């Protein structure tokens, strides 16, 4: 993949798990200078075959082909132009697609993942506008043991089927990212665009991520309003996360906590807590193992608490191509009503008090 000589991509951290490493490499390049302009086509194609138990109301299993087991399939174009004085103009356009059938990930929206333009400076940071990832997504991407893999994690858009959620990205957003030594600060605001009410449908988030080399600590906060209703009020949701990581030889231990609170305009509030932990370890030069555990505490009366365990292996055939196998098991631990036990982020195939998922697949980056 073509390397960039721009600070922009160094400061737009956490765009996705697949090119997080590329962003780190760009940071080192950008801080060393550079000039001119560049435009790069990039992407990843990920496909797999999945088995799910308890995938029908009668208890039947399901075997299907999916897109995006480890990485969401996507392609994008990004470019930069050196403006002088250490300043850089940049853009990113990124589109998700389903590799199993060739359709758009979001029907009718071409660049559904990122559509942003911005200015950056290695000293002062980056300011950008458009459809962009939220601060909570950027930060938790580095602390979720499964790095938001579709198969399987309870991040980023659901913690279980009742939408224990923070939004991965926001439209109409203004975003700042700045790196100061080992500390990265991220803040974003999304304009609601409703006439007569500046706060209606608006959202904002922020976070701090400290990289101490062999360890890391982070905090993130996400707040969003619903659309204004006839009584002049709106729903409110809040997410707060605390997370940490520690290197152990060649591997690392990761974990954290997320709290979700939803305040509707009427009826009682909804609260949940998600605890997560995991280990990543390269057992061989080309083989990496990941083990993860998620526990969801649902404070709604007579609703299930749930847990999920995941074991995943990735075998690299080259720097760009890998094979992977993942197995996950989820189970309700309270009431066992079978409503909140999907192994993945989609509850459309969960019909029992427990569920097992097994995935075999491959991905190729370009």
TrEMBL record:
GO terms for cellular component: cell outer membrane; pore complex. The keyword Transferase does not apply. Residues 1-20 form the signal peptide. GO terms for molecular function: porin activity. It is found in: Cell outer membrane. GO terms for biological process: monoatomic ion transport. Pfam families: Porin_4. It is a multi-pass membrane protein. It comes from the Bacteria. The keyword Ribonucleoprotein does not apply. Keywords: Cell outer membrane, Ion transport, Membrane, Porin, Signal, Transmembrane, Transmembrane beta strand, Transport. InterPro entries: Gram-neg_bact_OMP (IPR050298), Gram_neg_porin_domain (IPR033900), Porin_dom_sf (IPR023614). Residues 7-332 form the Porin domain. Homotrimer. This is Porin. The lineage of its organism: Bacteria, Pseudomonadati, Pseudomonadota, Betaproteobacteria, Burkholderiales.
């Amino acid at each position: 993949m073509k390397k960039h000589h721009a600070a922009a991509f160094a400061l737009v951290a956490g765009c996705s798990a697949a090119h997080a490493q590329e962003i780190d490499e760009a940071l080192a390049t950008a801080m060393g200078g550079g000039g001119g302009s560049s435009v790069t086509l990039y992407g990843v194609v990920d496909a797999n075959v999945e088995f799910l138990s308890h995938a029908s109301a009668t208890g039947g299993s399901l075997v299907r082909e999916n897109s995006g087991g480890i990485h969401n399939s996507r392609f994008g174009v990004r470019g930069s132009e050196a403006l002088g004085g250490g300043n850089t103009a940049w853009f990113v356009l990124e589109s998700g697609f389903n590799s199993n059938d060739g359709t758009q990930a979001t029907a009718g929206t071409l660049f559904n993942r990122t559509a942003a333009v911005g200015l950056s400076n290695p000293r002062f940071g980056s300011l950008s506008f458009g459809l962009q990832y939220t601060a909570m997504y950027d930060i938790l991407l580095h602390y979720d043991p499964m790095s938001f893999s579709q198969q399987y994690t309870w991040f980023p858009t659901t913690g279980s089927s009742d939408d224990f959620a923070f939004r991965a990205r926001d439209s109409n957003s203004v975003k700042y990212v700045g790196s100061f030594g080992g500390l990265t600060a991220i803040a974003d605001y999304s304009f609601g665009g409703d006439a007569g009410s500046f706060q209606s449908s608006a959202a904002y988030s922020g976070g701090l991520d400290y990289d101490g080399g062999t360890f890391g600590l982070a905090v993130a906060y996400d707040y969003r309003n619903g659309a204004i209703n006839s009584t002049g009020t709106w729903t409110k949701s809040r997410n707060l996360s605390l997370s940490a990581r520690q290197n152990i030889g060649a591997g690392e231990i990761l974990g954290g906590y997320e709290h979700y609170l939803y305040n509707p305009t009427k009826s009682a509030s909804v609260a949940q807590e998600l605890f997560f932990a995991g280990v990543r370890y390269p057992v061989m030069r080309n083989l990496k193992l990941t083990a993860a555990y998620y526990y969801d505490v649902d404070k709604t009366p007579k609703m299930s608490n749930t847990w999920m365990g995941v074991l995943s292996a990735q075998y690299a055939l080259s720097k760009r191509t890998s094979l992977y196998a993942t197995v996950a098991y989820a189970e309700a631990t309270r009431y066992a009503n079978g409503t909140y036990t999907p192994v993945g982020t989609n509850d459309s195939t969960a019909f029992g008090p427990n569920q097992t998922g097994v995935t075999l697949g491959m991905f190729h980056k370009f």
